[in-house]
Amino acid sequence: MRLSPAARSLGIVLLVLTALLGSAYAIARSLVPDGLGSGVTTSATGPHYGDQPPPSGEPGTRPSRSGDPAGPRKDTGEAEIVDGIRTYGARSTTGTSTVALTFDDGPDPRYTPQVLAILRDFNVTATFCVVGENASNHPDLIQAIVADGHTLCNHTWNHDVTLGARSPDRIRADLLRTTEAIRAAAPDAPIAYYRQPGGAWTYPVVSVAQELGMIPLHWTVDPADWRVPGAGHIASTVTTGVEPGAVVLLHDAGGDRQGTVDALYRILPDLTSRFQVAALPPDPT
Ligand SMILES: [Zn+2]
Asked: What is the maximal distance between C-alpha atoms in the chain?
C-alpha cells in the first residue's frame, strides 16, 4: 500500500503521541504501588496496578503464535515478541492443550477468597502470581491458595514494572525477598514461576528468574481487566480468545476487581466445557 506523504506524516505523529502517552501512563502506574508501602492493600482504595503491556503493545487477545511451547529457552538473548511485547523467551503458553488461568497482584482479602470459592465450585485449579508485600500482609490467603491445590508464582516484592532495568543483584534481591515472604506463609509450596509486572521483560530479569529456578511466565490472552472494562467485556474477550494451550491473564488485586470475579461465572462454564483448565504444574521438569 502506498501512502501519501501527508498520510505518512500523520501516521508518524500518531505513533509518537501513542508512545508518549503510553510511557507517561506506565510510569505513573509504576509509581503508585512503590509509593504506598505495605499494608495498603486492605484499604478500600488500595493500590491500583495491573499488568498492562508496554506502550508498544495493544492488549492482545490473539493466542501466541511465537510462544515457545517447549518452555523457556536456555538462550534468552533472542527477544521473542508476543502481541507486540518482547518476552525474551518467557513462556507464553502451557506447552500442552491445557488452558491456564493466572491471577496476578494479590492476594487481596476482598477478591482472592471470592476467586478461590468460584474456582472450587468449578473444580478448577489456577496459578496465582503474588506480590511479596501482599503475601507478607496476608499469609492466611497464601495458605488458602496452597490448600486448594493452586500453583504459586512470584510477581516481585511490590509490583515493580521497572525491575527488569535494574541490576541483576537488585533483581535477585527482590525476587528472593518475595519468595521468602511466600515461604514464610507456605514453607513447602513450590514457587516454580515468575511473572514480570507489566510484562516488561528484559534479558536480566528472565535470566535471574531462571537462575533462581523459576520459569518466566508471560501470557497469551489479556482481557485488560485492570482497566475495569466490565464483567461482560472481560468474559467475552477471554472466551473468544482462548485456544488450546492459552495462558489467561487476570487480576485478583490491584484495584476494583469485582468485574473480574463476576466474569469468572461466565468464563469458567464456557472454558471448562471446551478445554482442560488447570494450574500450571507446580513442579515442572
Ligand atoms: Zn501485576
From this structure: 63
pLDDT for 76 beyond 70? no
Centre of ligand 1 from the C-alpha of residue 187, in Å: 23
273 Cα: distance to centroid of ligand 1 (angstroms): 28
> 88: which residues sit within 8 A by CB, 6+ positions away?
76, 77, 78, 79, 80, 201, 202, 203, 205, 206, 216
DSSP state of 281: P
Q: How far is the CA of 50 from the centre of ligand 1 (A)?
A: 5
Q: How far is the CA of 105 from the centre of ligand 1 (A)?
A: 5
Strand partners, 151: 127
Q: Which of 4-18, 36-50, 180-194 has the highest mean pLDDT?
A: 180-194
Ligand 1 centre from 268 Cα, in Å? 22
**Taking a C-beta distance cutoff of 8 angstroms, is the pair 11, 157 a contact?**
no
Is-contact 18 56, C-beta < 8 A? Answer: no
pTM recorded for the entire structure: 0.77
Measured between alpha carbons, how far is 272 from 249 in angstroms, rounded to an integer?
17
Q: Indicate the burial class of 122 (C-beta count within 10 angstroms; 0-12, 13-18, 19 or more).
A: middle
Read off the C-alpha cell for 64: 501466541
**DSSP H helices in the chain:** 5-36, 112-121, 132-137, 139-147, 168-185, 203-211, 231-241, 258-274
Q: How far apart are CA 67 and CA 215, in angstroms?
A: 14
% pLDDT > 70, the chain: 72
Question: Which are the catalytic amino acids?
Answer: 104, 251
